[in-house]
Design a protein that fits this description.
mainly alpha; single chain; three-stranded antiparallel beta sheet
């Protein structure tokens, strides 16, 4: 009986240890992610007048072959609601980084296009972004650990995408 009680206590302690480790994983991820985003935001704002949100929108457009996407596709790619993206696009358009044009195939749809100023800005900002990522995220991380980071966050992204409400 004593052995069974000790085994139960050990199992409860082990389960509690696992739960604490999981909570800690969330906390350290959240803190590190927040700090990294703060560093990125500060640099982008100071050097180019961009927020991290602005940067993500411009980058998504820059990564397409012709630097243009339907607004609904862009919203999906950057994981913003259509109304939030419309608000962001309005100010990016005012600042001369993108323009919105009617779709030739569907007059109800708008297409966001990078301007030449937007292309120059994102190319310059993207290089600084890569340097910050190398310095603050990847410094001291070996190739095997990078592979593990990719594996973990790819799986997490897949799970989260499958949980997203439809019609977002």
């Amino acid at each position: 009986m004593k052995d069974i009680d000790e085994a139960r206590r050990a199992a409860r302690k082990s389960a509690a240890d696992v739960e604490r480790a999981r909570e800690k994983a969330w906390r350290v991820f959240f803190e590190a992610s927040g700090r990294l985003q703060g560093i990125l935001e500060s640099r982008l704002k100071r050097s180019w007048g961009l927020t991290l949100v602005d940067y993500n929108v411009l980058l998504a457009l820059w990564e397409t072959p012709d630097h243009r996407l339907r607004m609904s596709d862009l919203a999906s790619r950057v994981v913003y609601s259509p109304s939030r993206l419309t608000y962001i696009a309005e100010h990016l358009e005012r600042d001369g980084w993108l323009r919105r044009v009617a779709s030739p195939n569907d007059r109800r749809s708008l297409i966001a296009c990078l301007t030449s100023q937007g292309i120059a800005t994102i190319e310059s900002a993207a290089e600084a972004h890569r340097q910050i990522i190398r310095e603050y995220l990847l410094k001291g991380v070996d190739d095997e650990e990078i592979g593990e980071i990719v594996r973990i966050f790819s799986a997490m992204g897949d799970r989260l995408r499958s949980e997203e409400p439809k019609g977002r």
